Amino acid sequence: MSKRQMLQFVSVAKEMPLKRDAESRAHDFNEIYAEYAGEKAAEQAARCSQCGVPYCQSHCPLHNNIPDWLRLTAEGRLQEAYEISQATNTFPEICGRICPQDRLCEGNCVIEQSGHGTVTIGAVEKYITDTAWDEGWVQPIAPAEERPESVGIIGAGPGGLAAADVLRRQGLQVTVYDRHDRAGGLLTYGIPGFKLEKDVVMRRVQQLEQGGVEFVLNCNVGEDISFDAIRGKHDAVLIATGVYKSRGLQAPGVGVPGIVRAIDYLTASNRVGFGDSVPEFESGELNAQGKRVVVIGGGDTAMDCVRTAIRQGAETVKCLYRRDRANMPGSQREVQNAEEEGVEFVWLSAPKGFAGDPVESVMVQKMRLGPPDATGRQTPEVIEGADYVEPADLVIAALGFEPEDLPTLWGETALEVTRWGTIKADFRSHETSLPGVFAVGDIVRGASLVVWAIRDGREAADSILAYLAQPAQVAAE
Ligand SMILES: Cc1cc2nc3c(=O)[nH]c(=O)nc-3n(C[C@H](O)[C@H](O)[C@H](O)COP(=O)(O)OP(=O)(O)OC[C@H]3O[C@@H](n4cnc5c(N)ncnc54)[C@H](O)[C@@H]3O)c2cc1C
Ligand code: SF4
C-alpha cells in the first residue's frame, strides 16, 4: 500500500464505506455498511490534519489516540495502527460500529467544524481492527503468571467484559456471572445485528473464555446465588449489571396483549437471529410480521425497534415522539437510516390511550414545544382538539430504562444508591460503599453508551488491581 501525505481534506472528499441500499438491507439483519478497501481506508485516514490539540481524542471517552492511528493507516502501517488503537480500547471493532461518532470524535473533528466533512474515524477504526483479526494480530489473553486472587464480575456486558480482559491479562482468576445464557449484555441481546453482527461479539467472548475467564451463565445473582455468596467467594467484586427496568406507558388501555416492552421485543429478535426457539416470536406476540406497528419513543432503542420491525416484514411502521426531530435523543444518522428503510416518524405526538384487547389502535395527541424547563429543554404541550386514532396491531414502548432496586433484590442495604437508584460509586476508582465492591457502566451512570462502559470497566480493573495489592484489605475479606 502506498504511503500517503496527511492533510488531504481539501482535495479528498469525505467518503463513508458503501451503504447497502435500503431495499436490500430491509430484508435481513446483516450490517448495512461494507468494509473499506485498504486503499480507501488509507485515503480517508489521510484527510486528517494531525491537530496539535486533537478534539477528536479529547471528546472520546477512552481518549483514543486517533491522530496517530489515522497517520499510520495512511502510511500503510496497519499493524502499528492496530497496536495503538487497542492500547486504549478493549473492543475497537465494536466501538467502530456502534459508537455515536457524530456526537463524540467525528462531531468534534476540526475538519467537520470547518465544513469539509469529518474524517471517518469510526469506519477507519472498524477497518483497522477487522483487519487485525483477519491477519492474526489480535493477541490472545495469555497471562505471564497466574495469581491467586479472584474477582467476581456480575454482568457480562461491555463494562464487565472490559474489566475481565484487563484483570485476566494480569493473571487474576476471573469469574463472570450473568443471568442470560450468552455473554455480551446489550451487545448480544439489545443492539440488533444490522448495527453489530453477533459473531463480532461472540468472537470477543470466545477470546476471553480461551484466555481463562470463567463464565457462569443462566445465573441470576440474587436468585440463583446470593450477592453475599459471591462476595464470600472472591477477593473483589465488580457490579456491571446495566439498567433493565423499562419505563412504562402511562395511559388508559395499557396492559393488553399487543403492547410490549422494547427490551423484550429486541431480545426475542436477537434470539431468533441466533437460531434459538422463541415461543413468543413464533406465537406472533413479539413478531411484527404483517402488522401495523407503532413504536413510542425517540431514543436509540426506539430506532432499533422500528428498524427491526421493518426487517420482520411489518405492514407499516410508525414512530411517535413527543418532541421534534431536532430535539430527539436518538442519533440523526439512525433516523435517516430508518426513514430510508420505510419508517414514518410522527413528530410532536404522544399516546393518550389505547383501544382494543388485544390492542387495535392508539389515540394520539398532538403536541407543540413550549417554554424550556429547568434543564433548558423545551417542554412538550398538548394541542387540545387535535387528537386522532392510529390503527395498530403491535405497540412497542421504548421510553427508556431505570435501574432495578439492587439493595433490596440482593438483600444488601449497605450498598448505597443515588436518588435515581443507580449505584453510588467513586467516579475515578469506581468503589462502592461496600469494601472490595466496585461498580461500572449503566448501573452507575444510568442508560449510557458502550464506550463509557468500556472506559469504566478498564478503570475499575486498575482500581481492583490496586486494591488487591494491599494485603491487609484482602485479608480482611
Ligand atoms: C436497544 C439498545 C440499543 C443501544 N444502542 C447503542 C449504540 O448503538 N451505541 C452505544 O454506544 N450504546 C448503545 N446502547 C447502550 C449500551 O448498550 C449500554 O450503555 C451498554 O451496553 C452498558 O453496558 P453495561 O456493561 O453497563 O451493561 P449491559 O450491557 O446492560 O450488561 C449488563 C449485563 O448484566 C446482566 N445482569 C443484570 N442483572 C443481573 C443479575 N442480577 N445477575 C446476573 N446478571 C445480571 C445482564 O443480563 C447483562 O448481560 C443501546 C442500548 C439499548 C437498550
Ligand atoms: S480532530 Fe479531525 S483532523 Fe484533528 S486530529 Fe482528530 S481526526 Fe484529525
UniProtKB/TrEMBL annotation:
A GO molecular-function annotation: metal ion binding
FAD/NAD(P)-binding domain ranges (all copies): 151-457
Pfam families assigned: Fer4_20 (PF14691), Pyr_redox_2 (PF07992)
InterPro entries, per database record: DPD_II, FAD/NAD-bd_sf, FAD/NAD-binding_dom, GltD-like, Helical_ferredxn
Keywords (A to Z) from UniProt: 4Fe-4S, Iron, Iron-sulfur, Metal-binding, Oxidoreductase
Keyword Transferase: no
Organism superkingdom: Bacteria
Dihydroprymidine dehydrogenase domain: residues covered: 25-136
Key word Iron present: yes
Entry protein name: Glutamate synthase (NADPH) small subunit
Organism: Rhodovulum marinum
